[in-house]
Structures are given as C-alpha cells and as structure tokens.
Amino acid sequence: MDFSATKDCHCLAARRRAREITRLYEEKLRPHGLRATQFSVLAALALKGPTPLGELADVLGLERTTLTRSANRLGDEGWVADAESEDARERRLRLTPAGREKVESAYPAWKEAQDEVDRQVEPLETE
Fold this sequence. Notes:
Elements: H1 10-29, H2 36-48, E1 51-52, H3 53-60, H4 64-76, E2 80-83, E3 92-95, H5 97-120
Helix pairs in contact: 1-5, 2-5
InterPro entries: HTH_MarR-typ (IPR000835), MarR/SlyA-like (IPR039422), WH-like_DNA-bd_sf (IPR036388), WH_DNA-bd_sf (IPR036390)
Protein name: MarR family transcriptional regulator
Region (Disordered): 104-127
C-alpha cells in the first residue's frame, strides 16, 4: 500500500492551521488573563444574555463537559454566574458585571487577532 498521498492530508492541514490560529488568539488574549475559549464564552453570553449551558455549548461547538469546566473557572474569577431558571434541572449561565468589563477590555486584543487572521484567509461564514 502506498501511503504517500497522506502527506497532503486535508484533515491534518486543517488541524495544523487551527492550532496556529488558536495560538495567535491566545497570545493576544494572554495579557488579559483569558484563553481563546474563555473569551468566546464571555462574548457569547454578552451577545445572548443568560443562556442554558447545553444551548451555549451548541452555539460554541463545545462538549458540555468542556464548557462546564470553563464556566466553573470563569465563575471562580467572578466573570460568570448561574442565572435563575424556570427548570431546576437546567443550568443557565449569565455574564456578571465583572465579566462584561473583562470581555470589553479584552475585545481590542481579540479584534487584533481577528483582523490578522482575516488578512491571511477569507473570513468564514457563520450561522
């Protein structure tokens, strides 16, 4: 079997590029004490308001358990908190005033990374 075609693997190339892009965002957000995923959680809550954890996970394309760990860390920092829910089985997250301040202060750094990636590739369409 000839495996030489695997050196042009699209999956590997996409994963490599995703890691490069993530490193750029992480570098820009590091001075604000945020990881790229944490910024995305805060920004999504700023956009959507209080949101059920499962729905937020779907919006962000994250596993629920991954989002739960991230939300717990963000909660420890005082940036997110649990919101009231009509269904006691449902965990809803909300942005705290400190979280809004954090995402607003980090936004220019995120925008720098976003603009840099835009210059390198065509922006992706989002839902």
